[in-house]
Design brief:
mainly alpha, 3 helices
Length: 57
């Protein structure tokens, strides 16, 4: 059914799906989360520095 839906053979579908593992998705999700937290921390420090210099904080 999925072979006709995707217009691929079952062998091609199984080969493509073999590249997508749950561990890779979880790993990339964790890396994305950590980098986002680091970016937010750096941005907060920079904004705080500039707002203190401007006298807002």
């Amino acid at each position: 059914e999925r072979a006709s839906k995707w217009k691929m053979s079952e062998e091609q579908i199984n080969e493509a799906l073999s590249y997508f593992k749950v561990s890779w998705a979880v790993g990339f999700g964790l890396i994305t989360f950590v980098l986002a937290c680091i970016g937010a921390f750096v941005a907060t420090r920079i904004l705080k520095k500039h707002f203190e210099k401007a006298g807002v904080i």
